Amino acid sequence: MIVSEKIKALLETVAYLKEVAETKPVFLTNDAKPNFKEAMLKTKFTKYDIDEAEKRLSRFAPFIMAAFPETIEANGLIESKLSSIDELKDDLESYYQTEISGKLWLKRDDLLPIAGTIKARGAIYEVLKHAESLALDKGMLSSIEEDYVVFASQAFKDFFSNYRIVVGTTGNLGISVGVMGAKLGFEVTVHMSVEAKEWKKNLLRSRGVTVIEHETNFTLAVQMGRSQSLQDEQSYFVDDEFSEELFLGYTVAGSRLKEQLSQLDIQVDEEHPLFVYLPCGIGGSPGGITFGLKQVYGDHVHCFFAEPTQMPSMLIGLMTKEYDQVSIDDFNIDGSLTNMDGLAVPRTSGFVAKLMHNFFDGGYTVSEKDNFTFLRTLVDKKDIALEPAAVVGVTGPARLFSSAQGQAYIKAKGLEEKMKQANHISWATGGSMVPEADRQAFYEAINQYV
Ligand SMILES: *Cc1c(COP(=O)(O)O)cnc(C)c1O
Q1: Averaged pLDDT, 199-221
Q2: pTM
């Protein structure tokens, strides 16, 4: 493919863009980012929106417990634990030839109930919000004060069976939307891009979801879904590229993590910085979680998104300030080479990227080889089996300390003396639902790269 004049000009003027286009691993900081207070003045979203999302999820807790008994223990909350992964420090230090200060943690969204990935936060929220609106509009529900356990009744199932939900996905968004949508009684159609794994399609079909397979990438699968849904008045499209509901569903993780950290006696303040490393596909989940975390910790939390070297769509969108006006294809990056299917998004969300330019502290890319190395280390050291997309956050602390920009960031923020008291959370975004055979293949995959 020919590189256009516009792309050529960008490659010449934007620092590090050539390295990114050549799929070299980079760790870059967002030096133009304003402080938290200023950033909040530049967005229409507020703490109020997050509170509303939290309240909506608590209204649905009785239904969630009735429909998914595995959530009873957590009172209908879809939440995950934190695991210490300090045992990985030596491996990270020797692999990246660096020294890491602070404690290492893994946020176990691979264990989230109902759908087993981070998508269970945003997607389930959006489906529930849609169900609530329909039920209120059509008089099934008289007010939001009612006991939402009625959503588990046959009458509600019959009601929702008149409506359809459509989504385009590389797989995991489809599972969250599909499982929750089908449970409520909706007819759900999932448009899957070429990366989608066979077992994800089978799982959805077993829940009564219609799966349409496309030979095209994520961006095109989303377009197909969107146009199908638009032709049908009773249909609702969960739009990964533009959805504000998905984004808000993710934000509630902020206050929940705060509670979790205080229960573990982990401080986050001026003297105790918190670093968070979030796998990034279209940007909704790392964006929403970062936005939620900044509300509770302000500038004391430092949030970095992580992408495959073969799929750096958020990074090029932010670096060039072209957001969704550029895709990895414009730079001749071969996205088919990544095994991190959950992150296989060639063009970022314009909505999320523009918003997050003021909140993300930086981003980095991870090679397939590095990623599979630490996928295996996590199994060997901690018996934790993640899907490839979920591992990119794990190398974050080593990349912060081993890169020139990471070191400069620590210095510029005056954190050199405080890093001993720092905590690093790598967000593990999926893995528990992966079938054993696929798990084994992921574990062996590193052999192709050495
Ligand atoms: C979707 C997904 C992500 C990234 O979320 P986005 O909202 O697409 O950025 C990360 N990890 C896994 C396992 C996913 O499925």
Answers
A1: 92
A2: 0.97
Which ligand 1 atom is nearest residue 110's CA?
13
Closest C-alpha to ligand 1, atom 1: 342
- State the pLDDT confidence band at 190, using cuts at 50, 70 and 90: very high
Of 431, 282, 286, 430, nearest in space to 343 by CA: 282
- What's the chain's Rg over C-alpha atoms? 21
| Closest of 424, 429, 282 to residue 361, by C-alpha | 424
Distances (CA, A) of 413 to 40, 269, 315: 20, 13, 22
Across 262-285, b (16+ Cβ under 10 Å) vs e yields eeeebebeeebbbbbbbbbbbbbb
Its sign, for the CA torsion 265, 99, 283, 81, is negative
Q: Report the separation in Å between the CA atom of 379 and the middle of ligand 1, taken as the mean of its atom positions.
A: 21
DSSP β-ladder status, 362-366 and 27-29:
antiparallel
Q: How far is the CA of 74 from the centre of ligand 1 (A)?
A: 24
Which of 110, 111, 114, 119 should be mutated for ligand 1, with most atoms under 8 A from CB? 119
- Does residue 286 have its Cβ closer than 6 Å to ligand 1? yes
Q: Which atom of ligand 1 is nearest to the CA of 279?
A: 10
**Top mutation candidate among 80, 124, 172 for ligand 1, by most atoms within 8 Å of CB:** 172
Atom of ligand 1 at shortest range from CA of 286: 9
Q: Tell me how far apart the alpha carbons of residues 5 and 138 are, in angstroms, rounded to a whole number.
A: 53
Residue 426's DSSP bridge partners are: 106, 277
Q: Of 419, 435, 408, which is closest to residue 28 (Cα–Cα)?
A: 408
pLDDT digits (tens, 9 = 90+) for 403-446: 999 999 999 999 999 999 999 999 999 999 999 999 999 999 99
**What are the backbone angles phi and psi of residue 143, rounded to the nearest 5°?**
-160, 170
With a 6 A CB cut-off, is 119 part of the ligand 1 pocket?
Answer: yes
Q: How far apart are CA 216 and CA 83, in angstroms?
A: 37
Mean pLDDT rounded to a whole number for the chain: 96
Report which DSSP code applies to 339.
-
pLDDT, tens digit (0-9, with 9 covering 90-100), for 139-148: 999 999 999 9
Q: Label residue 195 by pLDDT band (50, 70, 90).
A: confident
Residue 72 DSSP class? G
* Ligand 1 and 282: CB distance under 6 A: yes
Tokens of 339: 């095994």
